[in-house]
Amino acid sequence: MNFSSLWRGKAPRLTTTLAVLTVSTLSSALVAAPLDKADIKFIGPIAADMQLKPYQTEHQDAIINSLLPSIQKPTTSITVFGEKLTWQNLDKVNALTLGGLQALKFSTHAERFSQGTLALKGIEKAQLFINGEKQTATKQSYELALPQGDHQIVIIAEQVANWHDVEVDFSPNTDIDTLTFSSAEQHGLSAQQLFDATTVNALSMAPDGKHYLVAKRHYQDSTGNQANVVTELKNDDQQTIYRFESSQPSNIIWSPDNNYLVYVLDGKLTQLNRKTLNLKVIAENLDGAGNFAYFDNNSLIFSWSKSPTTDSSLTKRYRGLQDRWSYARTISQAYLLDINTGLSKALSQGPLSHSIEDFNSKRGTVLLSRGTEAMQAATHPTTELIELNIANASNTVIGQFATFNQAKYTGDDIYVTAGPDFKDGLGRNLPENMLANNYDGQLYLLTKNGKNAAPLSREFDPAIGQLEVLANGDALVKVTEQDTIALYLYDKSKQRFSKLNTGFDVVEQFSFSNNRSPAILVSGSNASSPQQLKQLTISKNKATTLWDSQPHEYAHTNIASLEEFNFINTAGTEIKGRVYLPSNLDKSKQYPALVYYYGGTSPVTRGFTGRYPFNLWAEHGYVIYVVQPTGATGFGQQFSAKHVNAWGQYTADDIMQGTQALLKQYPFIDKNRLGNLGASYGGFMTMLLTTKTDMFSASIAHAGISNITSYWGHGWWGYLYSGEASKNSYPWNNNELYSQHSPVFHADKVTTPLLLLHGDADTNVPVGESHTMYTALKLLGKDVELIEYKGANHQIFARDQRFNWWDTILAYFDKHLKEQPQWWQYLYPEK
To answer: Which stretches are annotated as coiled coil (predicted)?
Structure first.
């Protein structure tokens, strides 16, 4: 049974009538004690004239499961077959027998991982659900194993002889298995909410701004790891005009004349008439095709990839470093497709893949980028930007660049995003003795022939990410700004950046119209509030909320409070951070704390949810400190440049100094109960910190790097990332960096219990990195655990694995920081 997901219903904390069942309320033999009927809600009879109960039919489970969501909702009543039924307390039920079905609902709160038996007395036939999951009974008794937090219990009864005889009893396994029962509606944030809640999956706005497509995704128990996605076409009055429910469209584009919507569905390129809603299949058999865009009203431009046939030979000869990638020999070319006939023609050819950067249908030109070699033996592969003239098939080379991200037309010129080293360091804002971090994106203006270029963001600290160009030639850029993701407008005529007021800490997706007063559709969230969908016009720079997940997915939910916490490190630099506090914080008590960081070249942004759920950890009674150590982008070039050739040198100091400053600022944090964790480069930092300090009582590294040399040589992108993180440094010319900064070379210094987590199919940081550290620590007799996730790559995506992963993290910290090993022992019993 999986009880990792807390429920969406009720919790006991804010109620005045609590029933606390502990050993003190029971006999010394830990016998069962009945729940107070005033703490149990009752509704019924449901369909009193029901001639056959569900168990008397062939569809019992389907009938009960369909009813369950209505019972789970925190409502005062439900209407069944036109009859309104009101929830009441079980102690108010007067009838001895009732027809149809009846339902009971209550909540239980566990202060720690707790086990016991829940028994139903007087109910002959029933199904019991915890957090929406059906439980298996032995003679109407159910074994509970509940993590800390709030859980909803629903009982749907089909046969009861006398409701006066009905009791629900709980027997704890031990005297520490304490549960509190209640009918209150307020509850703590749950893992299930964070993962399953409806979120915006895709956005696309029509050029005229009058229609938009929005795809929303959610998960549920019945579909497991399979996401449920619904895509709707809406007008500017928020009315749904067209809806996709089963098969979902992809690669959605709008015609320049605003008349059509084109998308790929079930392998077919399909055109939808916006006025008549008539459908037309434009083309089929387009395997490997993507990135469709209207070139003009009559044709589409797209990329078409071709993978080599399956190699059945006994050996594989590597032709270059990229051959470690499974897709390295896939070639992609640009094509043009005639909408009327479905005929496609190639625009590029040869052994090199070509990527479409942008196009200008009026001039008949296409901007393409390509590598200069099929298999480059370089840590900084060179990108060539060319302009293709479709009429005569001629190519003009605009330039070759060691750092390059995007290129888009703006009038007669070209916007380019790239690192500070673009065109011999044109974007550098650094002292001469510092090497630039080219992950710190900059914006440039390049003349059409490529001879002249101007840096546009050299004095602009946020790191430039996604680039889009408005009809008037201004640039819309998504940037990393400290620990936020923001939208900025670059006014080309005034040569200045201005921030758009989205109201989000983290902008996730955006789409915009091409009319005279462009509208922007944007989704995002804040550190303490979940996802919303908004629309704003650039001229007014004010957002209007179109959809908010808060009332739908997080009603009656306690969410951690947030405080900013910054400190000055010993180098005199301000290091930003934030602290999440449990919703029921009592400052007179001592709390364990978790310190989270990445430490790589990106900050830990302020999204509400994600792979590392800070709000959830706080709900489990931990103070959470998220620190943004030296080396991250978004804080200016000098800050990010310190990531180069450092491999934890500054980062470790910032984390340790920040933790010490945290303890001074928050006296209710117990200095003897500190945990730390990070993933990828953050996993490397966790391993490194265990060799440098004993201030932490437990540490977790997910997909961490233990040996910089093996990661550089084995990880799919190890040599590319190291091209910045270890710029100009190699094992043969800087062996101290590769060895002495690698945690495994200092494994004998580790004193902290360490949990290593890794997907066994990780191509980014191969699982051998955790194996290496595990081997060293085991041989040294250290306290180390290694948990692998079968079939998982660098990130844990699958719903069942994600819940188990979150449980494993919390159970490990509960064991070491709360002296509560029971959850860990339940998940990983000794054989």
So the answer is: none
Rounded CA-CA distance 302/283 in Å is: 13
The structure tokens listed for 95 are 């009838």
Distance CA(541)–CA(168), nearest Å, equals 57
H-state helical runs in 328-470 = 422-425
Give average pLDDT by consecutive 10-residue segment, the chain, 831 residues: 33 34 40 88 93 95 95 94 95 84 95 96 94 91 95 95 93 94 90 95 95 95 92 93 92 94 95 94 94 96 93 89 91 96 95 96 96 78 94 94 97 97 96 96 91 95 97 96 98 96 97 93 97 94 95 93 97 98 95 97 94 96 98 97 96 98 98 98 98 98 98 94 95 97 98 98 98 98 98 96 98 98 96 78
DSSP, collapsed to helix, strand or coil, labels residue 384 as: strand
Domain 560-827, what fold? Rossmann fold (3.40.50)
How many angstroms separate the CA atoms of 424 and 95, rounded? 86
Residue 603 CA: distances (Å) to CA of 481, 626, 629: 9, 10, 8
Say if CB 149 and CB 213 are below 8 A apart: no
Give the whole-angstrom CA distance, residue 332 versus residue 353. Answer: 5
Q: Quick one: tokens of 576? A: 């930003």
Q: Rounded distance, CA 670 to CA 227, Å?
A: 40
The residue written with tokens 């750092």 in the block is: 403
Helices H / strands E in the chain, number of each: 14, 54
3 state DSSP class of 764:
coil
- Residue ranges of domains in the chain: 33-186, 560-827
Residues 374 and 320 sit within 8 Å (Cβ to Cβ): yes
Residue 71's contacts (CB-CB under 8 Å, 6 or more residues apart) are 43, 78, 103, 105, 154, 156
Report which of 721, 632, 727 is spatially closest to residue 441, judged by C-alpha positions. Answer: 632
Check if the beta carbon of residue 144 is closer than 8 Å to that of residue 130: yes
Cis ω before 582 (30° cut-off from 0) = no
Phi, psi of 665, deg, nearest 5 = -75, -30
Distances (CA, A) of 743 to 523, 693, 737: 40, 12, 11
Structure tokens at 353: 């893949």
| 71 membership: H or E segment, kind and range | helix 60-72
Per the rule left: phi > 0, alpha: psi between -120 and 50, beta: everything else, 402 is alpha
How many angstroms separate the CA atoms of 393 and 373, rounded? Answer: 21
In 10 A of CB 764, how many CB atoms? 17
Let me know the angle formed at the C-alpha of 719 by 714 and 723, rounded to the nearest 5 degrees.
160
Cα(746)–Cα(748) distance, integer angstroms: 5
Query: For 498, how many CA atoms within 13 A lie in the half-sphere containing its CB?
Result: 13
Q: Burial of 22 by CB count in 10 Å (0-12 exposed, 13-18 middle, 19+ buried)?
A: middle
Burial class (CB in 10 A: 0-12, 13-18, 19+), 638: middle
d(CA 83, CA 85): 6
Copy the structure tokens of residue 261. Answer: 């919507």
Second CATH level (architecture) for the domain 33-186? Sandwich (2.60)
The kind and range of the H/E element at 721 are helix 718-725
Pairing of strands 88-89, 442-447: unpaired
CA torsion sign for 769, 771, 776, 781 is: positive
Strand partners, 21: 179
Same CATH topology for 33-186 and 560-827: the answer is: no
